Amino acid sequence: MISAEPDEPSGRRSPPTARVVQVIDHLVARPDQRFGLSGLARALGISKPTCLGIVSELVAAGYLTRDPREKTYGLGPALIAAGRAAQRGFAIGAIARAHLEGLAIEYGAVCTASTVVGDQVTILENVTPPGVTLGRTAARAGQSYPFAPPVGLMYVLWGSDDDLEAWLRRDPALPVVLDRDLLARVVEDCRRVGYLVERLTPVGRKLFSLMAGVAGRDLPAELKELIGEVVSSLGERVYLDSETESDVDYPVSLVAAPCYDGDGHQALVLTLDVGGSISGAEIARRGAALVAAADAVTAEIGGRHPRR
After folding, report:
1. What are the pLDDT digits (tens) for 81-102?
2. I want to staple 137 with a disulfide (CB 3.0 to 4.6 A). Which of 3, 143, 223, 306 is the partner?
3. 265-293 CB burial, b ≥16 within 10 A, e <16
């Protein structure tokens, strides 16, 4: 998948956000209890007006509920749904790992399983073949990236057109050019063959090393512009199967394929790292092997391919 530096704290903290996390953590640790505003503020050591602002927003978003008669707060359905989605994602990751291990050994390649949790792309599993050491820019389980253009195309590529459009409407993590004609060709091609092939470029992996664990808005504007020039247009780093030749070598970064849940939505993306030049025939062989692994995961979790 995308490459990244080892986990490292960014050094940038947000006290207001930390207080929101405090409130949620306090209630998650006591799921059977409800708390009044005064008691909650006192327990967390924050002012009552600040606490009121936080819980009011969380209630409005559905993450907390408020009993109008008792004037107490407890966990809300949105938070429970988010927790279940995350739990399901991590459980599926373990299933994917079993299918990725064979691929990692066969091709001597690092393989990953990743998914979207909330507003982040998260790596759930990282399978390294024997004798291979992860480099400084390798993706590691637990790392996350902003799920916003230009990051995340492969997580909506095989879903519905509505999912793709919703992703395109997100505030971009970095400046990006939208070439609708190119994107349409990429979508059609990747849906037909069932996998995506990402070009290997000198700066491609460095880009995602920089993006690991941060939100696009945390980057200085000047740096956004510079990286935006590198990123160029959406889909430009994808090889089209219809334009590759079996006896020609192509520099490939990775191959990716989707797994689906019971509703036919993308549940995971599996990737097989290449990091070098291989022939068009070898691209097709590895793509087919990855799709077979993804289909096996889909079957094991009771998923199905989408009906278009």
Report:
1. 676 566 566 678 788 999 999 9
2. 3
3. ebbbbbbbbbbeebbbebbbebbebbbeb
